[in-house]
Structure formats: C-alpha cells, structure tokens
Automatic annotation (TrEMBL):
Residues 177-291 form the Endoribonuclease YicC-like C-terminal domain. Pfam families: YicC-like_C (PF08340), YicC-like_N (PF03755). The lineage of its organism: Bacteria, Pseudomonadati, Bacteroidota, Bacteroidia, Bacteroidales. It comes from Jilunia laotingensis. Its cofactor is a divalent metal cation. The keyword Hydrolase applies. GO terms for molecular function: hydrolase activity; RNA endonuclease activity. This is YicC family protein. Residues 2-157 form the Endoribonuclease YicC-like N-terminal domain. It comes from the Bacteria. Keywords: Endonuclease, Hydrolase, Nuclease. Belongs to the YicC/YloC family.
Length: 292
C-alpha cells in the first residue's frame, strides 16, 4: 500500500505540573526536510527525536513542535523576591534623602516595577522518568501521522486505479479506428492520383508505397508498451512504501508513449482519444507528487 506525504499527528503527555503538547505535520518534498521547534527543557533530546522521525518518515517536509503548558495552581503563582524588594526600598530611600527629593507616593507599585522583583524559577533538569513519558508521546504523534498518511494513500491508490482503468479503456477504443485509418489513407492517395493528377500509376508500386507509409504510422508497439507501463504502475503501487519517485518515472514513460500515439494517429477520432488519455495521465502526474 502506498502512503501520502501529507499527514498530521498530535499527542499529549500529562505530567504532574505540566502538559507536553507534541504536533507533527508533513507536506510534499523530494527528500526528508525536517524542522523542529522544541521547548528548552527537551532540546538535549533533539537528536533522539530527529532519529525517531527519520526512522519512520522517509520523505516529506516535516514540521515538529513540542511545547509546554503549565498547570495553574496556587503553588505555581509567580513569587515576589522579598529580599530584592527590601534592597530596592532602602536604595531609593537613601537616594531620596541624599538628593533631597520626595520618595514615591505609591511604594508598592514602584517596587513591583523594578527589575527581577517578579521571578519564576524554572526547573530545567530533565529526569529519565519524565523523558520516557514524553518520548512515548513523540512516538504516538509519529504513529498518528503515519496512520493519516496511510488513509490519504488509500484515497490516492483508489484515484490511480480509476485513472489507469480509464487510460486502458481509451487505449482499447483506438482499435476500430486503426483499420479505418488505413483505408482512408489509401483512399486519399488514390483519389489524389486519379482525380487531381489524372495520371496512370503502377498499382503494385502503389501497394508497396502504402505498406511503407502505413508501417510508419503503425502504433502497435506504442500500444503494447503503454499497456506494459500501466500494468507496471499498478504492480509498483501494490508493492510497499517509498514508491513515489518510481511511480513518477513510470508516469513519464506512459506520457512518452501517449505522445507518440498522438503524433502517429493521423486520424481525428484517434487524436481525440489521445487528448483524453493525456488528461487522465496529467491527473496521475499531479497526484503522484503526493506519494511517499
């Protein structure tokens, strides 16, 4: 089964004093293009996180985010540095006395605005127990993204099968026009010789020339190669992940055969069918860019 490169995954790790949010998004890219935004406490684990992502996601432009939400409680209120407040108070009072200027009328507001009075002590040390919980959440988010990719891949596979079936049907619909085309070519040439030029001609020589001309317009090889490419596309799609580039190459080969059919068709109805095949193939080419 194929996978899409587009995906989204999220997980949450609940700790006693905080909630760790993990989000991972994936878009199209020719290779693995990974960018991370990780809260400072967990940055020491960035290489481990990157390895985990690289192991599970082969291609795509990946955005990984890990951020912290503090749980509100009375204990979590920002403390006031009382010693610092007292120091500022004494300094301001001494300066006012020396310079003979009035002291602030609202001491409390003045002191609270001084640098570092309101402090928040963050515990930066990461314990193994905490990291194990967060690591499991990282894996969970990656798994959710992979599952999303599989669902998108299933939708793509259905679309590809539909388009391949359409191209196969269009290819078969060419057959009735091939004999008609030969007859029309022969008729056009003989009419030109008999009516327009009004000359006698060697009918045996004409038959030889017609055979040569018609062989140049023969599309059996192109039809066979295109049929093989259609089968190979389906076979490749059914055999594992990471087939996006290969499917793209096969689609290019299909395009070459369809273009050759168009250049050799020399028949209005056949050319209309070729245009329809090109339209179906173009939709395949657009969507194959999403395949991992």
């Amino acid at each position: 089964m194929i996978q899409s490169m587009t995906g989204y995954g999220k997980a949450i790790a609940e700790l006693s004093d905080k909630k760790i949010n993990i989000e991972i998004k994936s878009l199209n890219s020719k290779a693995l293009d990974l960018s991370t935004r990780i809260a400072p406490t967990y940055r020491e684990k960035e290489i481990e996180i990157r390895n985990e992502i690289s192991k599970n996601l082969e291609r795509g432009k990946i955005d990984f985010s890990l951020w912290i939400e503090k749980k509100e409680s009375a204990e979590s209120a920002t403390p006031i540095n009382q010693a610092l407040v007292e120091g500022y108070y004494n300094q301001i009072k001494d300066i006012a006395d020396k310079l003979n200027i009035p002291v602030p009328t609202d001491w409390f507001q003045t002191l609270l605005r001084m640098p570092d009075v309101m402090t928040k002590t963050e515990i930066q040390e990461l314990t193994e127990e905490e990291w194990e919980t967060v690591h499991m959440a990282v894996i969970e988010a990656i798994n959710h993204l992979v599952e999303f990719r599989k669902q998108e891949g299933a939708a793509l596979e259905k679309k590809f099968r539909e388009k391949i079936t359409n191209i196969s049907a269009l290819l078969e619909s060419i057959a009735p026009y091939e004999k008609e085309r030969v007859d029309k070519v022969k008729e056009r040439i003989t009419d030109a010789l008999e009516k327009t030029l009004s000359v006698d001609y060697d009918k045996n020589r004409l038959e030889q020339e017609l055979i040569y001309y018609i062989e140049k317009l023969d599309v059996n090889e192109e039809k066979q190669r295109l049929t093989n490419h259609l089968k190979y596309f389906l076979h490749t799609m059914e055999n594992g992940n990471g087939q996006g580039k290969k499917l793209g190459f096969i689609a290019q080969e299909m395009g070459r055969e369809i273009n050759t059919l168009g250049s050799k068709s020399n028949h209005a109805e056949m050319q209309k069918i070729v245009v329809q095949m090109k339209d179906e193939l173009e939709q395949i080419k657009e969507q194959v860019l999403n395949v991992m």
